[in-house]
């Protein structure tokens, strides 16, 4: 049993029809297909609603992969009445929250271009995010980084995805910038996110179609997290 991951092919799709194929012992709901991003790679799982045929809805607070990594589990508000296995539902995203995360995620790809150092960690919020870099003290300046980052955003470059095989990725290890999070594998192919003329790296997350959709970004803090680790935080708007 697998869940069809519609968000991989179209991050702008806000809802889909699906069938409940299983209920977990913890009260999670497994769907046949979903537009909800499953938590991973520093990006939180999506929330939203499952709309039932009678017009009622089950609020979803998080989404995660099942233990088999082939299914996606939608986690409802504790105590919510659960629909039955085999029931049809409409999975509806909390779009405002998802879109903010898409903008932040794409901005962090650009930040990895502004600071071309190995990435040791990262996190995506609902309007902010951060990357950790393996870099010695280099006189990093928030105002300068903000200017360079917004310069890349203003180019309104196209963001697109394509797939390569595991073997192709193995022969091009320089594509992987993250030291702590490896690209999702297991299906024999790996998804690349390309920002036209700017960046190319493997990533399973959701992104905007053009960098101009990110809008203005500010570098809000630069923290020392070890001898050779610097945490750079950004915020939308």
- Let me know the largest β-sheet: 6 strands, antiparallel, barrel
Output the CATH class name of the largest domain: Alpha Beta
Order of helices and strands: EEEEEEEEHEEHEHEEEE
- Output the CATH topology of the largest domain: Threonyl-tRNA Synthetase, Chain A, domain 2
Oligomer: single chain
Approximately what portion of the residues adopt beta-strand conformation? 35-45%
The CA-CA distance between the termini, in Å, is 42 Å
Our count of domains comes out at 2
What structural category arises from helix and sheet content?
Answer: alpha+beta
CATH architecture of the largest domain: 2-Layer Sandwich
Helix content, binned percent:
10-25%
- The CATH H-level homologous superfamily of the largest domain: Threonyl-trna Synthetase, Chain A, domain 2
Number of helices: 3
Report the uncertain regions: none
Sequence of strands across the biggest β-sheet: 2-3-7-6-5-8
C-alpha Rg (nearest Å)? 19 Å
Textual characterization of the structure:
The protein has helices spanning about 95-115, 140-155, 165-170; strands at about 5, 15-25, 30, 35, 50, 55-65, 70-75, 90-95, 120-125, 130-135, 160-165, 190-195, 200, 215-225, 230-235. The mean pLDDT is about 90. By secondary structure, it is an alpha+beta fold. The protein folds into 2 domains: about 5-95, Elongation Factor Tu (Ef-tu), domain 3 (Beta Barrel); about 100-235, Threonyl-tRNA Synthetase, Chain A, domain 2 (2-Layer Sandwich). The protein is about 15% helix and about 35% strand.
